[in-house]
Amino acid sequence: MARCAITETSVTLCWRVDRRDGVTVGLTAHDRDLEIDGLVYRAAPGMTPSAVERSAGLDADTMDVGGALTGAAISEVDLLAGRWDGARVSLFACGWTAPDDIIALGSGFVGAVETRDGTLTAELRGWSTALERPVVEETSPECRAELGDRRCRVPMAGRRRYARVLSVSDETLAMDGVEPSSNAYGGGRLRWLSGGNSGLEDAIAVSDGATITLRSPPRFAGEDAQVELIEGCAKSLAVCAGRFGNAVNFRGEPYLPGNDLLTRYPGG
After folding, report:
1. For the chain, which end, N or C, has fewer CB atoms within 10 Å of the first or last residue's CB respectively?
2. How far is it, in rounded angstroms, from Cα 115 to Cα 121?
3. What was the pLDDT predicted at 5?
4. DSSP state for residue 261 in the 8-state scheme
């Protein structure tokens, strides 16, 4: 983004939001639409950001944006449903008389979303928040890898299938086909491919025959929707070795003594 001199009478703020599924939305605080670099930034004059904090030359640490996020482009329903979680956000200023002249103000990703006094507010987290994560993994008796990832290495071919939802009762979904084995999808994921939940993903708690139980109810109506079911893993060494034959790649410490070792005594 180029730097330029922008007069106070012509300056406006713009947001470019890139969702993880490839959807991109442009918004501007100006009272009419602006086209910048081939993307139309829709007028959202009610959108207001808080102060942008910077430190040590990093991108914006934190910033809250509220108001027009409840508009048609980024609706409250979609935000609360999680469609915009982790979306990349770029904030810049430009002159509305010459919108190609822009000044970058910060970038980050969508974090917490909440309602305050009837107004929707989304927190934008800067890249410096990654420094708050643990440097090394903590030990655990359960595997820390995800089934099929580069550390687990279990091939996922044949461990996914497509199905249609026949009915929904709270967290329980009835499918049009029986799963390949007992609780094959427990701990796995369900991806919605059509219907009101299209593009969203839910965690599967238990599967039994043609019944799938999610960890939380679907956000929107799910009857007659097409879904993708992805097998899960209980993350125990016994399941890793017995079901997948993959103990060599188990990423946990099932035999490492815990804090309760200090309270043990002979015969206890």
Report:
1. C
2. 6
3. 47
4. G
What does the block give as tokens for 266?
């002979």
Q: Give the Cβ contact number of residue 242 at 10 Å.
A: 11
Q: Which pTM does this prediction carry?
A: 0.65
Q: What's the mean pLDDT in 78-94? A: 80
CA distance 229 to 165: 11
Summarize the confidence of residues 12-37 as an average pLDDT.
84
Q: Is the pLDDT of residue 234 over 80?
A: yes
Tell me the pairing of strands 24-28 and 11-18.
antiparallel
pLDDT band at 149 (very low <50, low <70, confident <90, very high): very high
Count of C-beta atoms within a 10 Å radius of residue 227 = 26
Ramachandran angles phi, psi of 190, nearest 5°: -120, 120
Q: Is residue 233 left, alpha or beta, with left meaning phi > 0 and alpha meaning psi from -120 to 50?
A: beta
**Helix, strand or coil for residue 258?**
coil
User: What's the whole-number mean pLDDT along residues 135-154?
Assistant: 88
CB atoms near residue 93 (< 10 Å) = 17
Six token digits for residue 162: 């497509």
Q: What is the mean pLDDT of residues 231-238?
A: 91
Looking at the chain, the number of H-run helices and the number of E-run strands are 2, 15
- Surface-to-core class of residue 48, CB atoms within 10 Å of its CB (0-12 exposed, 13-18 middle, 19+ buried): middle
CB-CB contact of 221 with 195 (8 Å) = yes
- What local confidence, expressed as pLDDT, does residue 172 receive? 93
CB contact burial 13-32 (16+ within 10 A = b; e otherwise): bbbbbebeeeeebbbbbbee
Residue 62 to residue 49: CA distance in whole angstroms: 11
Where residue 1 falls among pLDDT bands split at 50, 70, 90?
very low
In the block, tokens 């909440």 appear at 114
